[in-house]
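Troubleshooting log. The previous structure file for this entry was overwritten by mistake, so regenerating from the original sequence record. Sequence copied from the archived sheet and checked twice against the printout by T.R.
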Amino acid sequence: MSINRPYRNAGELPAELPLFPLEGALLLPRGQLPLNIFEPRYLAMIDDALAGHRLVAMIQPAPGEAQTDNPVLAEVGCVGRITQLAETGDGRYIVSLTGVTRFRLGGEAASGKPYRIAALDFSPYAGDFDEAKAEPEVDRAGIMRALREFADANDLRVDWKGVENAATESLVNALSMMSPFGPKEKQALLEAPDVKTRADVLIAITEMELARASKTQAPLQ
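Regenerated output below.
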């Protein structure tokens, strides 16, 4: 998705940003992530982001940490820009974030805010600003095959014309973000170094899920 404020490189981003830890949420560059914001600390975070850079750092808690108040966090997340916001009238925000770039988590800052703020290292992900990077090498046929098999196995309706017409990066990232896989698999998709590798990881995870489902459903002899 295009945004009104495109970022050409990491030098245009703040060095510190608010953190939004959320298990199972995957945001990727140029992808869109809808969020239902209701906790007071994160409502405050959104208000502050809107008054400033409109940027939020999405990150997953580390394994086993999701239910704690101040969880240990994964090492890698993705910055999102607030591109849509609606007030519900009952104290919630419905927000859409558009992914900008991934980051490695640095040290957290003492801010006095109800939410966490941290220094972010964007240097490993300079390629995230290049929309066309690695697209020609992606196994698009493998992605389509895995998606068809997964859709058939789970009786899913798919807009195949829309899928086939989608740009390769958009297709890979959208399928990764919408996939029903767990936090560990979502983190692996996030940390894939490029679109080609992410596509390969997505195919492998889908095939493993299909094989596991097939074993579960196999009749006893």
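Residues 195-217 form the longest helix (23 residues). Archived copy saved in two places this time.
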